[in-house]
Amino acid sequence: MADLIQEVRRYYHTVAPFLEAELADRGDEQFWRQYGAGQVLELGCGSGRVTRLLAETDARVTGIDVCPELLDRARSAHAWLVLADMRRLPLARTFDSIVAADDPFSHLTEDEDRAHALTEVRRCLAEDGRFILDALWFPPAEEQRSHHQTERDVSVNGLPVRVTEHWSCDRATHCCTTEYEYDAGDGPAERASFRARYWTTDEVRQRFAAADLRFISWWGSYDREPWHEDRSQHLILEAAPAPQL
Questions:
Q1: What is the DSSP code (8-state) at residue 226?
Q2: pTM for the full model?
Q3: Sheet-wide strand order for 125-135
Q4: What is the mean pLDDT of residues 129-148?
């Protein structure tokens, strides 16, 4: 458990200066703003990009993350920030919404860790609350490929940075080795890697049911288009507590 936290902290120590620029064109801003009401918990809040969107309204936002360095960057968000592991949430109250943007569950590669985190989500979710997961998922055509690589340019403090992203995945375990390179052109490139696990639809259904969560919506985009397994580029899930029998 400690090894996983240290791995995540090492990765985000390297990528922290580039994180906001990388996600700036994600196009999910209005999607997350709609959950900015009542008591909101954000899992893996990182540097606060989505935290700020949630806090633009009158919502009372709590953000948790395992990386102190990222929480320092999130201080500008009007939220209560907690250094915590989502597998063991140090929270006694419930929330109207629990959101997981940019899939913090992707760092949980072990079955037990995912089960613990979803159990904690259910414990902290109000009976009429909603849990929203922006899941790491590959459409079938992409999952067939064991290697994925993309390159793109982002602007960091007004300067161009070339970002190279490479995923090497095992379809049997749904686990990947993910490598990032950031080249600003003025010296050695920064490199970072982490282990990730993507979701399958079978796993989503099984784990949510085990955690007593029922599905409300499956979306294929941040515009809430219906999800289609063959062509959707995103898998965004909204769930609620399952009725008690």
A1: B
A2: 0.94
A3: 80-83, 60-65, 39-43, 95-100, 125-135, 235-241, 213-219
A4: 91
Q: Whole-angstrom Cα distance, residue 122 to residue 118?
A: 6
Question: Domain check: are 69 and 148 in the same one?
Answer: no
DSSP code, position 74: G
Both 54 and 17 in one domain: the answer is yes
Unique residue bearing structure tokens 């990386």: 67
Q: Work out the number of other CB atoms within 10 angstroms of the CB of residue 200.
A: 16
Q: Are residues 85 and 121 in the same domain?
A: yes
Q: What amino acid occupies position 217?
A: S
The model's pLDDT over 183-197, given as tens digits with 9 standing for 90+, comes to: 988 889 999 999 999
Q: How far is CA 166 from CA 110, 114, 179, 184, in A?
A: 22, 24, 5, 18
Total domain count, the chain: 2
Q: Tell me the two tokens of residue 67.
A: 């990386």
Residues of the domain holding 179: 140-197
| H or E element, residue 48 | none
